[in-house]
Amino acid sequence: MGNHFDPDLMYVECGECGNPILWEPGRTRRILEMAGIDPDGLDERCCLISEGCPMCKPEASHFATQVVRLGREKEDGAKERRQSAN
Fold first, then answer.
1. Rounded alpha-carbon distances, angstroms, from residue 52 to 39, 64, 73
2. Which residues lie closer than 8 Å to 55 by C-beta, 6 or more apart?
3. Which of 32, 50, 30, 49 is nearest to 41 (CA)?
4. DSSP-assigned letters across all residues of the chain
């Protein structure tokens, strides 16, 4: 059974001002293709961070982006510490 995560549903945020970024359907998938990133390797913990957006850099028309995977390690580690403290 394959991965059913739709990369077009990834959260996108401006790394400069912190605003969420909304863009047309299919754009995330095109960005991933141009970057050579296989969408099957992504999941709901992944998001895109843009180095600027039209709100904070209205003079720019293109922004570099990076895929970030938010880890569960910190959450799992904190849960283990709470359980061992009890």
1. 23, 8, 28
2. 14, 17, 19
3. 32
4. ------GGG-EEEETTT--B----TTHHHHHHHHHT--GGG--TTEEEEES--TTT-TT-S---EEEEE--SHHHHHHHHHHHHH-
Cα separation, 14 vs 66, in Å, equals 11
Instruction: Tell me the pTM.
Output: 0.71
The region of weakest confidence among 3-7, 17-21, 25-29, 42-46 is 3-7
What integer is the mean pLDDT of 7-32?
92
Distance from C-alpha of 3 to C-alpha of 14, rounded to nearest angstrom? 27
The residue-averaged pLDDT of 43-63 equals 92
Mean pLDDT (the chain) is 83
Tell me the one-letter amino acid at 32.
Answer: L
